[in-house]
Amino acid sequence: MTQTTPPRTLPDVATLMRQVLYALLPGTALLLYLYGFGLLSNLILACLCAWGLEALMLHLRQRPLPPFLSDYSVIVTGWLLAVSLPACSPWWLILISMVFAVVIGKHLYGGLGQNPFNPAMLGYAAVLISFPLEMTRWPDPARTGFDAAGLDALLAGVFGIGSLHWDSLSGATPLDQVRMALHGGKSLVDSGMPLFSWPRTLGWNLLNLAWLGGGLWLLWQRVISWHIPVALLGSLTLFSGLFWLLDPGHYASPLFHLLQGATMLGTFFIATDPVTASTTPLGKILYAGGIGAFVYIIRTWGGYPDAMAFAVLIMNMAVPLLDHYTQPRVYGHRHRWLP
Amino acid sequence: MRPARSPTPPACPIPASCSGRRGGLDEADPQGLPPLPDYTQLDDATLRCRICEAGIVGLGGAVFPAAIKLNVKPDVPIRQLIINGAECEPWITCDDMLMRTRADEILAGASLMLQVLASHAPDGKLTCLIGIEDNKPEAIASMQTALMALTLREGRSPPHTLRVVPIPTRYPAGGEKQLIRQLTGQEVPSGGRPADIGMICHNVATARAIYRAVALGEPLMSRYVTVTGDGVTAPANFEVPFGMPVGELVRHAGGMLEPDCTLNMGGSMMGMALHSEQVPVVKATNCIRVLRPLPEQAPDITLPCIRCGRCAEACPMSLLPQQLFWHAHARELEQAEALHLFDCIECGCCTHVCPSHIPLVSYYRFAKADIRSKRTARTLADQARTRHEFREQRLERARRERAEKLARHKAAVKQSPPTERNIPDDSGTAGVAATPPPAADDPRNAAIQAALERAQARKAALTQQEPRESGS
Question: I need a surface site. Which of A137, B3, B264, B296 has the fewest CB within 10 A?
């Protein structure tokens, strides 16, 4: 007499991860259009590093290779880092960030499912702190692409072959400009920020919309639940809206915050990482609300132009506490805080 | 009659009505249970007694004796009777078929139960809710028709209110706790029974069995069983006598499509694999599934939990299956209990949705069994310790009493005159020799003397009476 296991007709881990990769495609396509070879090299290098390091660590930890190498989770990590790092990132920068992400962030904690911190964001934060110059050199989209100039930029940027005048290529992102204007005491209009110039600002907006589209598809496919995106975007809108209403000359509008930087990528693909997010419904809302608040605080008053990585890592630390105190009421039990 | 193996652990032999060669007990004893056609006039104790004699148990799967469930403590108020017409699990249709074909008997059984419980209703009136899943329109229609006929028979003022309520089909809708929440919005307190919130819940098949036992004098000897699965020729519902081997039942349904099909008892979520065709149908058997062997494929690999929370979304008890899993996996049983492990109804929803293919329910079953065996061991150890301590105490008291006695003797010997101590004593007890001879005027002696005389007088009187009594 043996108990049979219920049938499994629902997606497994590999399917879920593949769906996340599909949802990343629209944004990635737009990035490829904007940065050409520069992003392609990022993607290839990051995924190769991720896969190789995963295999190495599984071998060192004496774990079976096939189930873990085919679950796509490390490819998602590599992909997320590839689209977060500046295009044309040097190969060693990608390698270092992947070592932090896969080796330290994931396997030293016990591998899939055990890591308290989002591996991709850990790798990103590590290289952002260690190599600030390389990490803020986003090439000008107008000067890269799938052409000869793009190839030159690729060789120079990634492998250090030939010479590349970064000054002529890179430019501050709109978030940088806003922050510098704010810190310099100038108003947004005086800083001469081109609000709708192609491809600088509008490119970022479009990119965020592309991530948003992919994220909505994930919601529709029920890969992610509504709690984290709604709470994160809601909290960011709330804080930015509050300060913008107080002083619209100094503080950027909610729409600007929602459609600039890594907002949508972080909301739908990074904060929703199930391993490192809170698991209870209320916990998810508090966790994502905290990320939204930290993103606004660091963007506005912090030392870095964008903040998604730090905000996610900070709230990752709060997850065990959130999970403990937000357990839902069990059937037939009284509520924890109600008589 | 050949003893058959029970499908539920521990596998013990069950003498059954149709297993192997007949040995004499083929039919119910015709004089055993006389029909009670005027059952509406009977009191609740008589009805409960009949239900008990007929061997009626809960046919939803829990097989709890129905008479005990209906025997509510006198001071507990009951307001509602819930009749469970929702199937236990996917694949099962035996209750559906029963409601389509025997709706009047089910309602008569429900009325009988209302009659038994009427004395517990504060105002003498009970509500009976019959919950049926909304994917069974024929069963709902059949029950509603029968209910209308019953209402017409009872006339203007029915003693109790009966209602058929369609409920959403969402496993585990047939679970007692889930059905009660769906129908009434109330929750059975953890560790409690539905009677704690004024409800009694019975399955439709139990209701029908009660009617047949009371009105027709028929003991529970058969039940509706679903035979289904992709490996059976003609899936159908059968009324099966208990004890029929599963293999024979499957042959009645046209047999297996392929010789190496596997047999399962129960639905797809909580069922059990049967290893023999000789396993008999028992009172808990609601479904036999015949499944084709799965095509050769890679073994199901379990990945680590990725904390996706799908299990928590699926859990009908709002538990946190993944936290329970971590604690059960690490054998941290106290923490698992603190997360209400024993509220788990083992429905299997979490295992069904887990993308990492973790057999979650198996972990919970294991942890529960572990905790139960530890509790038993602790109780036994406590009992042994109490016994040991009591024995130690007893020995200590005996030792003390002996020492005191010895000390008293020594003191008595010391007090007595030295001349008498030197006289050799036959009895060896210096104390007796030292006591002065009883005085004749002692009131105690007088009382003893009086009692002896009374006894002698009684004896004399008895010897005088005896010959007369034996002669009569």
Answer: B296
User: Model confidence over B182-240: pLDDT tens digits?
Assistant: 999 889 998 888 888 989 999 999 999 999 988 888 888 889 999 998 888 899 999 99
pLDDT, tens digit (0-9, with 9 covering 90-100), for A225-246: 999 999 999 999 999 999 999 9
- Contact across the interface for B304 and A12, Cβ inside 8 Å: no
Largest distance between two CA atoms of chain A: 79
DSSP B193: -
Contacts of A113 in chain B (CB under 8 A): 303-307, 356
Strand order in the sheet with B161-167: B161-167, B127-133, B80-84, B199-203
Q: Which of B192, B312, B359 sits opposite A5 (nearest CB)?
A: B359
Is A327 an 8 Å CB contact of chain B? yes
Q: Are A71 and B303 in contact (CB < 8 Å)?
A: yes
Question: Given the structure tokens 């020492």, which residue do they identify?
Answer: B403
Phi-psi region of B197 (alpha: psi -120 to 50; beta: other; left: phi over 0): alpha
Rounded-to-5 percentages of helix, strand, coil across chain B: 45, 10, 40
| Residues of chain A contacting residue B268, judged by C-beta atoms under 8 Å apart | 4, 6-7
Instruction: Please name the residues in contact with B68: beta carbons below 8 A apart, sequence gap of 6 or more.
Output: none
pLDDT at A166: 52
> Pairing mode, if any, of strands B287-291 and B80-84?
unpaired
ipTM: 0.83
CA atoms within 13 A on the CB side of A222: 8
Torsion sign, CA atoms B99, B102, B108, B110: negative
Stretch 24-63 of chain A: residues touching chain B, C-beta under 8 Å: none
Residue A50 CB contacts under 8 Å (≥ 6 apart), including other chains: A74, A75, A77, A78, A81, A98, A101, A102
pLDDT tens, B430-450? Answer: 444 445 555 556 778 888 989
Buried-exposed string A226-249: b where 16+ CB fall within 10 A, e elsewhere = ebbbbbbbebbbebbbebbeeeee
Mean pLDDT, contiguous 10-residue spans, chain A (339 residues): 72 90 94 85 92 93 84 92 88 93 93 91 93 77 64 70 54 65 60 51 84 95 93 95 88 86 92 92 95 92 84 94 90 72
Give dist(CA A243, CA A254) in Å, integer: 9
- CA–CA gap between residue B142 and residue B229 (Å, rounded): 26
CA distances from B266 to B88, B272, B274 (A): 9, 6, 10
Q: Flag whether residue A338 sits within 8 Å of chain B, measured between CB atoms.
A: no
